[in-house]
What we know:
By secondary structure, this protein is α+β, with helices and mostly antiparallel strands.
Amino acid sequence: MSDISKTQQADLLQDRIAAFASELAFDGLGAEDVEAAKARIIDTFAATYVGFFSETARTARAYAASFRSSDGSTIIGTRERTSPEWAAFVNSATSREAEWNDVYMSRGAGGAHPSDVILPILAVAEHVGASGREFLTAIVVAYEIYLGISDVVQITGFDQTGLAGLSVAAGASRILGLTPQQLKHAISICTVANNPLNQTRRNQLSMWKAAAAGQGGKAGVSAAFMARAGIEGPHLPFEGTAGWNQHVARNTYSVDGLDPKSGVYRIRDSLIKPRASCAVTISSIFAAEDAARKVRAPEVERVVVETYAYAKNGVGTGEQRWNPTSRETADHSIPYVVAAALSDGSVGPRQFKDDRLWDPDLRALIQKVEVLANDEFTEAYDRYPRQHYTRVTVYTKAGEVVVGEAGGPDREDMGRAKSVAEMDAKFTALAEEYIGSRRAREALDRMWRLTDIADVNEIPPLFTI
């Protein structure tokens, strides 16, 4: 294998990622980092339950099962084993399906889903029998890379799952015990070969919205295995004349952090979702739920939603927001979630099932919703840490005006950190329908003690449906 570091020109970001992934030690993590990682792993398993019976997950499971491997990795929720690459695909796609896994509202652009890295890295950890500590440390590695890059680049036109693939490649390489040189090759292979287009999240959305997360995870795992086998990646993947910086990032940037001895890691900064919907619809859901306590849907004449510009432009603009034809489009539609909240009082997985999506009364209510950008709310969102202000004003047929609000320190805000009790409540509420309350409690207790697990092959059976 050629030594990239001995060539005349080095790729500084490639070197930095490889060094960070190789050198970060579990003992260097603070207690808050460890608990934050556990919380996001638990949250991802909770989201996996909700997505398990979706068409996306069923189709992906059926395909992945054709690559059975006795020494491979578990298709979560089942006792089936497939190759680590296909386990990464199906498990990550399933966890993304219901829109309940965590989100990061970056400084550089919009929202992304760093928890897309968790189950692909677990697939590799299971394959080699890694410990809970090794698995958790690799998750912190992947989050730091994902969030660090997403803070400083705007990958307009390309999908966020490309960052997931790169981050998985680094975390999986660490789990596999690759040398720093092999790790550089894994990073290069994934960076150059896997740059998905953002058409994944444009116009009417399809099952690929969730499957793209699986594809990113699969790409990262594959890159790590290829590098272990001796396959070399291209030289200068980021800084070359036809590299990632020039054609994907397309802006000058410097990635701060990626210091294995910093003692403070970005995994603490992702947000745990309180509703099963696109992150930038959630303040609209909160405000509509507030209004729904004061008015009944049949009384509604007109609805005005005032929100921040990023939400308005992303999920409050375009004909498809008022005419969603799939669950994937509906959970990325402010008009839909506001109408659903006003009609049903709250928004959860139930509101995205076909009988609600095509309910004629609900679809008539959607047409009464107008979405506006509020300058004050936009300014609050553009500051960091972001605040998610939204106001829903309902005008009734009787001439009354009802207002619901969200955001800031005194109301429900998407950016508020969740307590351990809230995390436990979310997990048990989602899991007990599938595995019962006793097993849900046992799984939760064991995962909070993840660092005591000697072999992560103990984990998947906890979640078998």
